[in-house]
Amino acid sequence: MEPRNCDCDDQKPEIVTGPIHRRDFFKLGVGGALSLALASRMTSSLFADDKKPAKGNEKYDKPPAQVTGKAKSVILLWMDGGPSQMDTWDPKSGINGGSLKRIKTKIEGCEFTEPMAPLAEVSDKLAVIRSMTSREGNHQRARYYLHTGYPPTGTLKHPSVGSVTALKKQNPDLDLPHFVSVNNPSFGAGFLGVSYGPFVVQDPSRPPDNVAYAAGIDAERFDRRMKLLDKVDGAFAASRGGLMTEGKDAIYEKSLKLMRSPLLKAFDISEEGESVKKAYGIDDGVGIGSKNGGAAKQGQRGDKFGAGALMARRLVEVGVPFVECTLGGWDTHQDNFGRVAGLAGSLAPAYAALIKDLEDRKLLDSTLVLCMGEFGRTPRINPNDGRDHFPGCFSVAMAGGGVKGGQMIGATADDGMTVAKSPWTVPDLIATICTAMGIDHTEWFQTPVGRPIQISNKGKLIEGLLA
Amino acid sequence: MKRTTLFALSSATALAAFIALSWPQTSTAEPKKPAANVPKAKKGSPETEVASQLDALVAAEWATQKLDASDLSDDSEFLRRATLDITGQIPTADDARAFLMNNDPDKRRKKIDELLESPLYAEHWAFTWSQRLLSGSKLLQVAGDRGGAYKQWFRESFASNKPYNKFVHEIVSAEGDSDSNGATAWLVSLQDAGEAGMAASASRNFLGVQIQCAQCHDSKVSDWKQPDFWGMAAFFVRTKVRRIIDPETKMPKGAFEIIDMPRGEVAIPETDPPKVVDPRFLEEKPIPRAGGTPRSKEFKNPKNPERTFIGGPADGVERRQDFAKWLTADDNKWFGKNAANWYWGHFLGAGFVEPLDDLDITNPPSNPAALDYLTADFKANGYDLKRMIRTICNTKAYQLSSKPSATNAKDDRYYSHGKLEHLTPDQTFYSLMAVTGLENSLARGMDRDRVEMLKARFLAGFVFLFGNDEGETGDAFNGTIPQALVYMNNPQIQAGLKVGPSTTLGKILQKYEAVDARLDEMYLSVLGRFPTDTEKKYFTSVINKYQNSKLIYEDVYWALVNSSEFQFNH
């Protein structure tokens, strides 16, 4: 079992040559006291480029393993609140089964519930992992865990897999952010640094915040402002100089490029035809973004999710490597079946449309589309007709990006209480996402305090998943 | 303990021998002399004297490191830095003008005193400490509609200049519920993290000891062993944070209560049979359990192998109270030093020890004598935080210009030049409020509570957008595109940068007619200084070229707000 709350390195000290981090230095166990004198200097020089591991250390200098993933982008459909596996991907008969009808899929021996019907239709593209297991049953902790592969420690912030992807798939020719999160702030880059954090789109029905010129400003006037800014900044930079002012200039330049990028229209779903919108479950735009559109809460949520999924496709189309899109409301302690039916009614058409749409555009092979939440829900139904938190068993679905579709991986027991076959952990899931993207998940990062952290928290590739 | 051997090895010969091996990165690193020349701290000695002593210690290090110090900051640089650091926002145009025109040679010292007495001091430090201690999700819950008590508690602690040892003692020993005792906030914020999280947070924040690695295994980077960590966790294992349930509706009320049970032992996770750990203070012997050993049948909990709590016999010992006492006692060797290092680092841009929260023996200070002296003065004077700030801000080291000299540009440890730092989220927010006059616009036709609520919501947005993740150190710019976009285009801020009836710029244009008077006031409002002759000449010509239109003023004002000089604390 993986250790709880631990991400420390348990590797043996290594023989190191050249400059190293002070932490590693002490591991050597040689010249203990001598290091006292050196530590401060080393710390300061090494913190200067804290994103990059120290050179000269075998662990960090090891070239990344050749990972032959096919995917160029990931779309993460995040089911916030903890979706009920037994009422979606892994239905059961018997006392724990619940009231949703079960339907057949194209995968032999694999049933979904009825509200998932659109997904049953594309199930030949889907791999359903039914044997995910974890121990984190608290929302916030589990959200962190599923996004980073590490349980929260309180002392170190780990990068989310979206941030890792943004870092490892940097494309200087792409003016757009590399990690976009729709409907949810998601999780940041932690010790990798804020520049790899998510670009958050609060409302997919309108352009991202602060990208458009303010009222009364046009390109010409903006240029004038930038010229005046150059003038103000010139003297300050001349006297202070250095990385800080240069870095600020670079960020302004990038921001301006984003504001003026023709790719920005990838954020604009209004360019899509009505039939496409409809397929994603976007009704008529009434609900989304408008506070008094009159649509029920559930409907608004579904519209926003469909709009986010559609935006995700548009972003992937222009090369954004990681897009997360959230559908919230899965914390169904009460009225589980009614609510899950409604939520699945939002999820299923959008997810299915996304798979078909990507396939039509020949993008499915290069886009991993996965669907997960922070944990599963209890097989036992509580007195409020609800289900409670249950990290012991939950399901994750994947399509595209080199995933072998039309299969089930692992299984839960008949009563849903335990994993019956091939349990897979959250670090395994992170390792698999990285591998699909051609990222070496065994690579080590160095945190600012010099602790080595492996991307996937020592996960293993989920067997049989990738073709 | 092994650390003593580490010291024993620290002989001059060993050092010399090692240096002779010519480590490539260390040609400039000198062995640290033991802190021999630490001046004696005295109760009630004037802060300016303490500051001079600190300066002498810092200057000695410049000589050793062959660094020339930068010039003293000019008045506008000093005023802006001190106002941001002490009160969390930039000086107003009136403040700046008055300070710059003042010929009193003692005006800096007086200004520091004045800033410390400003109500904004308590506001800023309440925010700074709650950000530091209450990170994570629970903060939002506690800080939501029910956050009044904790905000109030922090604010009052700083407004009354509560001694730091008392402040921390109240936090760690807090009892009762979160609605009536705001000091419970730290424990509440650690509800999910449990005893392990409480121990790790207390150790890191209040001792500067990074013991958390020993949670899972004996640390390989320091001497801490698993029993050290769990021995500290044993002081918190009896403390539970629960949501208060409304007796009528049976629903959670939103407030939390702290409950201390008379029993409870901690076991190292996944040990079989569970290894029960006695409580122990760092580097001290384990404290025998008053009630004896838990019965072995309580050990087994096969359903939950990682469970660390074991019932055990009730002995009624209030362990958390014992811990709070030990933590804040005068003879705790880390407690005062950690605070001194943190405050110094906060004001100077780098602590004597970096990272700020890692006072481990393996991570020595850059200037042990200065750190020891500041610590001793802090303790000798009743852990007086305002005194510590007054001392630090009166040092020459704090008041140096951020313009580097020919030799010191790369120095980030010896305080040879002023710091260049990003504004923190609250500094950004309040400074933008000031230059836009947004608060005035909000205040029109809105009641005070609603203005406060909107402000809080807006501030939360800034914390989200401008909050750096932990461990962001170094001299690189850590800004992001979304941050730059806020400055460039955010509709609310842009509205505030226009010429309007209640905007700052609108008021400037109303009050002054002449172009150069307007430019003076714009520069004072945004940058806290007068424009240079070159700047004045250039912008006057631009403004004239565009026929003195309000649009061109808006453009110039926008450029000032978007400048590095505004966005950095320098």
- Coarse structural class of chain A: alpha/beta
The termini of chain B sit apart by: 44 Å
CATH H-level superfamily of the largest domain in chain A: Alkaline Phosphatase, subunit A
The assembly state of the depicted protein chains is heterodimer
Number of domains of chain A: 2
Using the CA coordinates, give the radius of gyration of chain A: 24 Å
Distance between the termini of chain A: 28 Å
| Number of DSSP-assigned strands of chain A | 16
- Listing every helix as H and every strand as E from the N terminus to the C terminus, the arrangement of chain A reads HHHEEEHEHHEEHHHHEHEEEEEEEHEE
Strand order of the largest sheet of chain B: 1-3-2
- Unreliable spans of chain B: 1-31, 137-145, 302-306, 469-475
Rounded average pLDDT of chain A = 83
**Major sheet characteristics of chain A:** 8 strands, mixed
Query: Number of helical segments of chain B?
Result: 28
By secondary-structure content and strand pairing, the structural class of chain B works out as mainly alpha
CATH architectural label of the largest domain in chain A: 3-Layer(aba) Sandwich
Helix percent of chain A reads 25-40%
By CATH reckoning, the class of the largest domain in chain A would read Alpha Beta
| Largest interface pair | A-B, 99 and 105 residues
* Record field, number of beta strands of chain B: 8
What fold name stands as the CATH topology of the largest domain in chain A?
Answer: Alkaline Phosphatase, subunit A
Furnish the topology, listing elements before pairings:
The complex is a heterodimer of chains A (467) and B (570).
Chain A (H helix, E strand, L loop, with lengths): L21 H7 L5 H14 L10 H4 L11 E7 L22 E3 L6 E3 L3 H5 L4 E7 L6 H10 L12 H8 L10 E4 L16 E3 L17 H22 L1 H18 L14 H6 L17 H21 L4 E6 L8 H25 L6 E7 L2 E2 L11 E2 L3 E6 L7 E3 L1 E2 L6 E3 L4 H11 L7 E3 L5 E3 L13
Parallel strand pairs in A: 1-7, 1-8, 4-12, 5-6, 5-7
Antiparallel strand pairs in A: 2-3, 4-11, 8-11, 9-10, 13-14, 15-16
Chain B lengths: L1 H7 L3 H9 L26 H19 L9 H13 L5 H9 L5 H11 L1 H15 L3 H7 L4 H12 L4 H9 L3 E2 L7 H5 L4 H14 L18 H8 L5 E7 L6 E9 L4 E4 L6 E3 L31 E2 L8 H10 L6 H14 L19 H13 L4 H9 L2 H4 L21 E2 L2 H12 L1 H6 L4 H19 L14 H9 L1 H6 L7 H8 L3 H13 L5 H13 L4 H12 L2 H4 E2 L1
Antiparallel strand pairs in B: 1-3, 2-3, 4-5, 4-6, 7-8
